[in-house]
Amino acid sequence: MVLSLLLGFAIGFERKLRFKEAGIRTHTIVCVGACLFTLVSVFGFSSADSSRVAAQVVSGIGFIGAGMIFYHKEVVRGLTTAAGIWATAAIGMSVGAGLSTLN
What is the helix, strand, coil percentage profile of the chain, to 5? Predict the structure, then answer.
């Protein structure tokens, strides 16, 4: 959980330096939340399919990201932020699944 907090913080800090809408708090919460959901799905329910929770995290974060995308006068804003939130959730899920060290 601490690793997901640090990784989410690092991504959020970079976005805050660039004065983007979603910053440190948003990325940290998304990363830790995705990690926690993954941990609970893997270790909390031995009889259930843990991939179901992972699929719903991806869908839920996609829904949140869709709310960050704005289109006005042929200008699209927030697309990179939405993709960043989605990738941050994937990082949190990978940490929760124990895949933080890839060879």
Answer: 70, 5, 25
The predicted model scores a pTM of 0.88
For the stretch 47-82, pLDDT in tens is 777 788 888 999 999 999 898 899 889 999 999 999
CA pair distance 29, 36, nearest whole angstrom: 10
Distance CA 84, CA 78 (A): 10
Please, where are the H alpha helices in 67-102? 79-96
Contact indicator for 87, 95 with CB cutoff of 8 Å? no
Number of other residues whose CB lies within 10 A of the CB of residue 100: 13
